[in-house]
Specification:
The complex is a heterodimer. Chain A is of the alpha+beta class. Chain A contains 14 helices and 34 strands. Classes of the chains: A alpha+beta, B alpha/beta. The interface between A and B is large, with 27 and 47 residues.
């Protein structure tokens, strides 16, 4: 295929800034889909994504476009996941493109996530087409927003396109701009095959469907292929291009985007960022930038009903087929029984997985407090990785605990700088920089321990800024900190599922809050319940749940025993849902107590 | 031996706390009595020769609103269709304002052996709050009047009214003892759904007494009455020697009983593992109408599972403070080996002074009685 007639691009946008609607318009305008075929926002096919307005799994779609110059072009739109947890996946998708449409809401202005993705795009040397969406809104301020955008990417405000994805206004000029302003791919169709995997989805019958962008060479049906990082070899049974469905073709040449199927049974073998080559005539080097996406946040997932353990395992297995970043291994908790320690890319990823387990698999699960991965240097000179607070070795054997740090970028209206800075300081943040994007918006940069961000930081950020601030972060390094393990004991029995690792300076405060919250959540029982928070053997806080004072039915008049018995049966069922810790019955909500705590 | 309960659904006015079925408007006693006779006949055909009846109980509502003639017809209907040759106790619930000498004598002549007098309090402000018909003076006069005609009677008293001073409660017990009450039924005021009291609480007009207050009152009651010669034989019941309510004890003992009248409940165990409970419609018009068409006024009927049956027995038997839960009977009749199945729970409950284990019976302590429902929840299957 003539490289000059191909344009590979993606859309960078903040959640709700209209990426999906704009994609719909492009498909419609190019006749890729008829209006009848058009399901609203076709690119986000999972219900969950559509509800959240976040594309979780990237897809790609090929459009044929006859430009005003009278020539036919192939436009490949590669969709990117739009959240901080998926930075690596985004960077791989961007690398598969030559250009990007930068969509900014003309009313709301640019957001943190858009900026970081924009930086990724600039790093990947993409041609950027700035677009203001929702210009039809009365609250739109296109001139101001256009200025901010040009300040960031250079160029003139006049180069910024105005569209309304909703009405379709400006979409035709956008298509022209894609042809005119985005470079065509380069590459040698006769060179050894070098193609980037930017995504894969799992098909029950055919194994992994690998989405790829060919940089050099030609991928033909029947080719003996190899994924270079994993060194797995397959036969390219089917290759094709992505339209509304998969459309088989005989070959994909340099510059093209498509899919390959090769009986890849294990999704772990087709990793995003890996390079596809022909092992009979391999590429001298892989596409740079490959790494294995590592989970950053861990949480224990336990079935509420212990009989559901195998169902939970099966569900996680299924989820992992389409989500290579998800890791899990069985673990046992004395309080919660059998479950899994599950690793996620970040908090959103965790939320999505939980919600899918609930919705798609109808599983009732208890999630323990999320934690990060710690590197623990022991006094004997060795190092261990701790992904569960209960694996933390005794204090005496620890030389140093290192925790992951992130660089956070917060874009906010200037009004909230003060409260946001306070929030970051409270979370052990290290101030880096403040940069004014325009007189009303500022880019605030902090380095923060990831552990301080994994729970409720994002919610707090949103609430102190009335929803106006946005956040993006990237992992930077590991740093040593004064960290301790905080345990919770009920009537002297430690509750493993409630252990957390916290900074020493915060342990006392946290212990007190946790004990108090648990006191609220644990109902009165026949006997007194002592709640203690402790570091090692040192109790730092104690609360008491007083025993039931009175619980007796006045009378069973006229022999109406059924009513009492039905109540008893209901209470029995309620008791079964509680988790038994020693002699104490603990309701499930208690295990999320830490998550439910407010900053004071 | 089995019991019969007759629900008389008439009241003059509505007490704030009451959630039993009653009507204050349709007082057509004749129609009701005829419907009741039809129901008694119908069940008599099925159960009349199964077990003799040892107790008959008129509850309500306000059975003492029924004219003597109607009561006589009902009793004779029971007599016609059931074996009353071994009857030991015939109880009727009465409101103090109905305790007129002629009526009382008439009841005695009909064979009523025991009255349950709904005094609730001897203080006017308490009675006004509860929206009782009678006042304090009537309450006192009623106890005296009943005592002059009946040897056996019980005084119902309610504790834990909002803001009721502790002294009032002590004074209520003291006065009833002085007036010669041989039996007490003492109840904590319970806020039942859909009652006027529940609405007042919801609107914030009334603040119910705390559990701590209820507990104190209850513990005080147990101590006070037992010290004065009343046996605490059931969680809420206290009696002088030989004054226990046989009818109510039959409930705790899981014996058979038939309930007649709207909203009445029945329990009948045919074999060791087969038992049914059923209840009547809670609507006088429908009750009358169904029986006029010779149909049973059933609201619902269920067969109890073995677990439901043993749970009930455990819960009910625990309420009996002197007999307690007979573990041998539990094993023999219900197939539950509690000593094995609930070993750790029992040990913990005993250690914490909520129950004692004697002669293979589980007996609640006073502390245990205060939380009897929670203790039962620990022990059911």
């Amino acid at each position: 295929m003539d490289l000059q007639r191909i344009r590979n691009f993606c859309i960078i946008a903040h959640i709700d800034h209209g990426k999906s609607t704009l994609a719909d318009r492009l498909l419609e305008q190019t006749g890729t889909l008829t209006a009848r075929e058009m399901q609203a926002q076709v690119l986000d096919s999972m219900d969950l994504e559509r509800e959240r307005g976040i594309t979780i799994k990237s897809h790609a779609i090929r459009m044929n476009y006859k430009a005003q110059d009278g020539k036919d072009y192939v436009l490949n739109l590669i969709d990117t996941p739009g959240h901080v947890d998926f930075t690596y996946e985004v960077s791989r998708a961007l690398n598969a493109c030559e250009g990007a449409i930068l969509v900014v809401d003309a009313a709301q202005g640019i957001e943190a996530q858009t900026i970081s993705n924009l930086y990724l795009a600039l790093e990947a040397d993409l041609d950027i087409i700035p677009v203001l969406n929702k210009v039809d809104l009365p609250s739109a301020r296109p001139e101001i927003v256009a200025q901010t955008v040009t300040d960031l990417i250079g160029g003139n405000p006049e180069d910024v396109l105005y569209v309304s994805a909703k009405t379709g206004e400006g979409v035709d000029s956008l298509l022209e701009a894609v042809v005119a302003r985005i470079s065509h791919p380069t590459g040698d169709p006769d060179a050894p095959l070098k193609a980037l995997i930017f995504d894969s989805v799992y098909d029950t019958f055919r194994g992994s469907v690998v989405y790829t962008r060919v940089f050099d060479g030609t991928l033909r049906t029947g080719d003996p292929i190899e994924f270079m990082a994993t060194a797995q070899r397959y036969n390219a049974e089917e290759i094709g291009v992505l339209k509304l469905g998969m459309e088989p073709v005989k070959e994909l040449t340099a510059g093209e985007v498509g899919y390959v199927i090769g009986s890849v049974k294990d999704v772990q073998d087709a990793k995003v960022g890996d390079t596809v080559t022909n092992w009979r005539n391999p590429a001298p080097e892989a596409v740079p930038g490959f790494r294995v996406a590592k989970p950053m946040v861990f949480s224990g997932l336990y079935p509420t009903d212990s009989d559901d353990f195998e169902d939970l395992r099966a569900s996680l297995e299924k989820l992992q087929l389409n989500d290579a970043a998800l890791t899990y291994e069985p673990e046992t908790s004395t309080a919660l029984g059998f479950g899994f320690r599950v690793g996620f890319l970040g908090m959103l990823h965790m939320e999505i997985v939980q919600e899918r387990l609930d919705r798609e698999f109808d599983l009732d699960i208890i999630t323990t407090m999320p934690n990060v991965r710690y590197t623990v240097a022991l006094t004997n000179g060795t190092e261990i990785i701790v992904e569960n607070p209960n694996e933390m070795p005794p204090t005496g054997t620890i030389n140093e605990i290192r925790e992951p740090f992130i660089k956070a970028q917060i874009i906010t209206p200037t009004d909230y700088i003060g409260t946001l800075m306070k929030l970051c300081q409270d979370r052990r943040g290290v101030y880096i920089n403040t940069q004014y994007l325009n007189p009303e918006r500022v880019d605030l940069q902090y380095e923060l321990p990831l552990a301080e961000v994994v729970f409720d930081f994002y919610d707090r950020l949103k609430s102190v800024s009335r929803g106006y601030a946005s956040l993006d972060y990237e992992f930077i390094d590991e740093r040593a900190g004064h960290l301790v393990k905080l345990d919770v004991l009920l009537n002297g029995d430690p509750v493993d599922a409630l252990s957390t690792i916290v900074h020493r300076d915060k342990a006392y405060h946290m212990g007190r809050k946790l004990a108090r919250k648990l006191k609220e959540l644990i109902p009165r029982q026949l006997y007194e319940v002592a709640i203690q928070a402790a570091i090692g053997s040192k109790v730092i806080s104690r609360e008491t749940v007083k025993p039931l004072r009175k619980d007796v039915t006045a009378r069973c008049y006229g022999g109406d025993i059924s009513r009492k018995r039905k109540l008893l049966e209901k209470q029995k069922a309620g008791k079964k849902r509680m988790k038994q810790v020693g002699s104490v019955e603990v309701p499930q909500e208690a295990f999320l107590a830490v998550l439910a705590m407010e900053d004071e | 031996m089995a019991g019969i309960y007759v629900h008389v659904p008439f009241c003059t006015q509505r007490c704030v706390y009451c959630d039993f079925y009653f009507t204050t408007t349709q007082h057509n006693y004749g129609v009701f009595s005829r419907a009741l006779e039809a129901e008694i006949e119908s069940y008599g055909n099925e159960f009349g020769d199964k077990e003799p009846i040892d107790t008959l109980y008129f509850g309500g509502g306000t059975p003492s609103l029924l004219p003597l003639d109607d009561l006589a017809r009902i009793i004779s209907a029971v007599n016609d269709h059931f074996d009353l040759s071994a009857v030991q106790e015939v109880t009727l619930e009465m409101n103090p304002e109905e305790a007129k000498p002629a009526y009382l004598r008439g009841l005695k002549d009909l064979g009523i052996t025991r009255l349950s007098l709904g005094v609730q309090s001897f203080f006017d402000e308490d009675l006004r709050f509860m929206n009782r018909v009678h006042d304090a003076a009537q309450a006192e006069a009623a106890v005296e009047a009943v005592g002059s005609v009946f040897d056996s009677f019980t005084v119902d008293l309610i504790f834990g009214l909002p803001d009721q001073p502790f002294e009032y409660w002590g004074a209520n017990l003291e006065k009833a003892i002085r007036l010669g009450a041989p039996h007490f039924s003492t109840y904590s005021l319970t806020v039942e759904e859909k009652t006027p009291l529940a609405k007042q609480v919801l609107r914030g007009l009334v603040e119910p007494a705390t559990d701590d207050t209820m507990r104190d009152r209850f513990l005080f009651t147990m101590e006070y009455l037992t010290e004065r010669g009343y046996d605490h034989y059931e969680v809420c019941s206290f009696a002088k020697a030989d004054e226990r309510s046989i009818h109510n004890q039959n409930y705790w003992r899981h014996r058979n009983y038939l309930g007649f009248g709207p909203s009445a409940h029945s329990f009948w165990k045919t074999t060791r593992s087969k038992a049914h409970r059923w209840s009547n419609v809670s609507n006088l018009k429908r009750y009358n109408g169904l029986l006029q068409q010779r149909a049973l006024p059933l609201e619902e009927r269920e067969q109890l599972t073995p677990t439901a049956l043993s749970d009930e027995f455990i819960y009910l038997a625990l309420r009996s403070m002197t007999e307690g839960l007979d573990l041998d009977r539990l094993e023999a009749d219900y197939g539950v080996d509690m000593l094995t199945e609930k070993r750790s729970e029992l040990a913990e409950l005993e250690q914490n002074g909520l129950l004692t284990l004697r002669n293979n019976r589980i007996l609640l302590t006073r502390e245990g009685a205060v939380v009897a429902d929670a203790v039962a929840l620990e022990l059911v299957g």
